[in-house]
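Fill in residues.
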């Protein structure tokens, strides 16, 4: 199951009493020091799918080391201790539907005034009855994955026949019960040519956001191929051209340099700084991994994100708030002055920051440059020229 991005905010009437809206935690100049906006929580790695890009390398059976229900309650207490407003929790996996206590966990979060969203796998376990029960328990939104415009293409990624048809049915079920949906789509060499057919298909469905997840080669995703920086740049321009036309929001995940493209378009169109700040792009400014988000795996270990598999602590012995606010990994990820290479020299660093997960997967350092970004900052060009470093075609 791919990690969901920030789920869409439902209508006020769709939130349980006392529960804050999604994204209620705000940044200070694009830095989330007090609390993350989102806590992604992998309740289990058990899943009935064997997706080719699965970050978790999910398996059919449950791991006996999963957190118990009582341990889950202690995690929720720690999330609540971030203060008001608390982070929003996204329950993911694997497939969180494999936890028989899922509804109890959701109710416990709601009782603590923590908003909760769900990223289920689309299997026969995802029934209308289960969705209604989860909505009644307090689930505010769900995310569903669609990686192909046809059954052959989508099922080829998910590797279970019938998943495409079940996904179409799940979209209809969610719409019927009034549960807001975000659709996640993998962006990789294997899906790039199909993206626009997927978009046309989604225009016929009811959703509030389409999030394009740019491949990070972790877990089973290491067997797939990333698109090139040039292809990513062209895709960004095409995506931005849909702003104002699309019936739903469009965002990118682990491709923060889309913000540079969108920002330049908005400036060219005469948008004021205030208008840019209020836009969906502006609200997402800042490094993603470890800044505004954190990730808890099924065993209670804490990471900056699901795609950045650096363990910073264990909630059996560590405190989540202390880890997020003070651990050197988190504090360095929130400090763009520590970025290296082109990202460190980039004038868009505070608003973009690059994918720290991709930098880590490619170089072994989460502070290095994001290799998917082709932009050559002027400061980087001057430095390369002064040091007589070889330049790429883009540099010239």
């Amino acid at each position: 199951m791919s990690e969901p991005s920030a789920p869409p905010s439902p209508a006020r009437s769709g939130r349980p009493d006392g529960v804050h809206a999604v994204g209620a935690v705000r940044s200070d100049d694009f830095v989330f020091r007090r609390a993350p906006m989102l806590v992604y929580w992998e309740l289990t790695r058990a899943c009935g799918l064997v997706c080719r890009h699965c970050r978790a390398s999910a398996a059919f059976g449950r791991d006996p080391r999963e957190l118990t229900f009582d341990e889950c309650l202690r995690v929720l207490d720690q999330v609540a201790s971030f203060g008001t407003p608390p982070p929003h929790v996204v329950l993911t996996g694997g497939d969180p539907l494999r936890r028989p206590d899922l509804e109890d966990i959701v109710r416990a979060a709601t009782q603590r005034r923590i908003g909760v969203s769900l990223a289920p796998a689309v299997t026969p376990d995802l029934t209308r009855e289960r969705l209604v029960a989860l909505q009644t328990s307090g689930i505010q939104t769900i995310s569903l994955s669609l990686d192909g415009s046809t059954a052959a293409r989508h099922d080829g990624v998910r590797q279970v026949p019938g998943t495409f048809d079940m996904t179409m049915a799940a979209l209809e079920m969610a719409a019927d019960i009034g549960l807001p949906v975000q659709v996640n789509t993998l962006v990789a060499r294997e899906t790039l040519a199909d993206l626009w057919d997927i978009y046309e298909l989604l225009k016929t469905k009811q959703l509030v956001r389409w999030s394009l997840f740019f491949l990070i080669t972790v877990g089973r995703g290491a067997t797939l191929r990333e698109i090139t920086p040039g292809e990513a740049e062209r895709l960004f321009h095409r995506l931005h051209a849909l702003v104002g036309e699309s019936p739903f929001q469009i965002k990118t995940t682990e491709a923060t340099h889309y913000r540079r493209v969108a920002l330049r378009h908005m400036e060219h169109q005469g948008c004021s700084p205030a208008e840019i700040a209020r836009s969906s792009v502006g609200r997402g400014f800042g490094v993603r991994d470890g800044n505004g988000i954190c990730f808890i795996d099924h065993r209670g270990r804490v990471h900056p994100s699901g795609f950045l598999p650096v363990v910073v602590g264990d909630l059996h012995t560590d405190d989540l708030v202390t880890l997020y606010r003070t651990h050197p990994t988190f504090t360095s990820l929130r400090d763009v002055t520590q970025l290296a290479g082109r990202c460190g020299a980039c004038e868009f660093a505070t608003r973009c920051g690059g994918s720290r997960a991709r930098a880590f997967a490619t170089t072994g350092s989460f502070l290095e440059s994001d290799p998917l970004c082709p932009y050559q900052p002027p400061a980087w060009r001057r430095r390369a020229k002064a040091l007589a470093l070889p330049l790429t075609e883009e540099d010239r």
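The first strand starts at residue 38 and ends at 42.
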